[in-house]
Amino acid sequence: MPQFLAGLFVFLLLSASSAQAQDRVILQLKHSHQFQFAGYYAALEKGYYRDAGLDVQILEGNDGNEPERAVVDGRAQYGVGSSSLLLARLSGKPLVVLAVIFQHSPYALAMRQTGPAPDIRSIIGKRAMIGSLTDELTQADEVIAYLRKEGIGANQFVRVEHSFNPDDLVKGKVDAMSIYVTNEPDYLDRLGFPYDIYSPRAAGIDFYGDNLFTSEAEIKNHPDRVRAFRAASMRGWQYAMSHQEEVVDLILNKYSRQHDRMHLLYEARQMVPLVQPVLVEIGYMNPDRWQHIADIYTELGMMPKGATWNGFLYNADPGSDLTLLYRVLGVAAGLLVLGGAIHFSLLTRERTRAEETIRKGEQRFRTMFEAAPMGIALIDSGDGQFRDVNPRFAEIAGRSAQEMRNCRWLDICHPDDVAPEREKMAQLSAQQITGFKLETRLMRPDGRIVWVEASINAVETESQPHHLCMIEDITEKKETEALIWQQANFDTLTQLPNRRMFLDRLQHDILKSRRDGTRIAILFIDLDHFKEVNDTLGHHQGDVLLVEAARRIGACVRQSDTVSRLGGDEFTVILPELAEVDRVEDIAQHIIDSLRMPFQLGQEQAFVSASIGITIYPDDAGNMEDLLKHADQAMYAAKGAGRNRFSYFTPALQVAALNRMRLTNDLRGALKGNQLKLYFQPIVHLQTGKVHKAEALIRWEHPQRGMVSPLEFIPLAESSGLIVDIGEWVLRESAHWVKRWRAEVHPGFQVSVNQSPMEFQRERGSYAGWLAFLQQLGVPGESIVVEITEGLLLDASTSVTDKLLLLRDAGIQVALDDFGTGYSSLSYLKKFDIDYLKIDRSFTRNLAPDSSDMALSDAIIVMAHKLGLSVIAEGVETTEQRDLLAAAGCDYGQGYLFARPLPAADFDAMLHQQATAEATVA
User: Fold this and answer.
1) How far apart (Å, rounded) are the C-alpha atoms in residues 697 and 43?
2) Which residues have a Cβ under 8 Å from the Cβ of 476 and sit 6 or more positions away?
3) What are phi and psi of 159, to 5 degrees?
4) What is the CATH number of domain 107-203?
5) In CATH, what class is 663-921?
6) What is the pLDDT at residue 748?
């Protein structure tokens, strides 16, 4: 045991010593966490820094020059900067570039798309965000150089402070902005914003992108740490570019959720052609490229001509510097024999080192080639044969590597894509183009089609010309785009074209009709009684009916005709290229006959019919808007004529529609103009003949038209939404009158107010406003009865139930109007708190002692009393009807026998006259 404890102590001591041995260093980024810095996260999380004896802390940045300031001040040992580091070096800052990550800069200029041909000169006179106004070296130098190359000076456009917010470009606050091609285009694409991108590379300005750098002091004081940090960072970058999805998840889980996963993957994929991890060793930097950058800065006046920048580039492999070798050879010039031996020895060693370097380079290239996240293949330009493919290419193509080498490029292409691709290949072989990109389809052996984005370039080899082909699987993207297009243009239930596609096809047919001189017929179809099917059998069965109706309509027309669903139970049909209009009637009647046949919905059968409006182009209208409006008017004319028929548009329908529109407009001013009047009709207690109840009825006294029937203006009020305001007015007026009559006529007086389904089901507010008004007025809820129709109770929504419960809790009673004419059901009489049943006048009108109407009325009265409900009979016009109803036990009667609806003042006088007579008798 003592030996074990001693060993454990030694182990812990060594572990502590090892942990203390790790150097703490700080890497300062120039922006917030994103895939742009993926290699450093990978190096940290995969333990590459730890293996190198480094404890690395990665800090976010707020602006592009923060890394430069942090490294100069000693707050960080390493940083990430742009090519403007060269200017910082010449200004006296001791900065040294360790490695280049982006072989091509991601900086570019984005502008709102203004036409089919992009033109950089359209920026003249416009507002542009290009770098920070307070720091000319941040995101501005490359773009400014590009504009100057194109002959556009800084004084030819208005430069504003950069917000780095793409919304400013989308909303028109600016017309152009400098961007990262790996970043902002994704946001602009998501917003559907049309834009053009202008890259400085188009003018020969090819800067390096992100560069890893440090200070001269760090290299002098810690040379081993610098080499270790650079090697671990480059290893991290190789891993990150080969495992993009894994590193994206790492960023989301441990660093930042500022960007979503799709955006980080977009950034990763856009970085591949900029970093070029397969073709160029990550970290490689070419002094000639830096000289190119220096020349551009010199042209801009940012750098003196002939300036030297010795020591700016870090020598990652000092062993490859032959300066010392040459000096030795110079000293040994006099010692020819000894020098020759030394020279031979050194050459042998250099050759061995060079061969080893080449071997390692080939091994590294092969490793990156094999592990690349995109498919890469080398294709013989002569016969199209695959000479080499990486595993990802074979996986996308659905074949083994050996199978790929036994076939040609065009063998795996979709037959429809072969011709354009063969043409492009021919242009490439003829050196008319250096490369091309396209979206194409590959055929897998199992018959599946894979969409790929392919980039094909000519490459020189020792033997014959080859093509380098890089592909990326975009099948999921294509399927998503197809789904979005399908959802945008087709109805998801019936798979028919929706309104958008219908309008597009109609516009196309109208243009063709103008050329050919033919006619077009539009059929506007509305299913009659569909709502009743929905209410009784449920929405699922209603959907089944709609699908079957769509099939039946489609079977009645030609394949070239368009059948669409506009929404709900409304369908349209376009019949183009009509030589004779007469056949339209045959098609319309065929549709009506087809839809009149029973629909089998599970165990139930449903019956609907169709009302069809027909309009003809160009006879009835010359544009789409008027055609649809006229077809709609004709459809309503068919409904008004009894449904289950078709109707052509006529000018008279337009006149009627205009009258309805004008009457609706007049109705909007009726409330404010005090044109609405409240009438009351008494509800008489049949046993005593007393009047302690009344129904409030609305009348409209139009200043020009005179008295307008409620049958005419109530539907207009419902369709326009004015019924809600009118209902509020009726309640308030009724409340004032019932307060008076409860005080002067009878303390239990009640007034019934009608509620249309639209008014009852309104989402704006509830009865809380009513109840507050009644409470403020001092009128109890028992003084009001709300009359609703049976159709409301078929809607089992919580909204209807909650409102009925609210009325009950407030003491307001509920009457079921027109009972017996709808889908009468004992279940909802039991389920809901109903106080009164009102027998419809259609039963009262033909009452006779032994008639069926009398039997039905008797049954309704007995049933209601058994359920604890009172009964009111409407339409009582004769004493015989009154006596029969009273004998059957009916509680109340309402009709012309007792009184017609009277203006409020007249009704008030009648009540007081009755009260006086009753007092006299008493």
Assistant:
1) 82
2) none
3) -95, 125
4) 3.40.190.10
5) alpha beta
6) 93
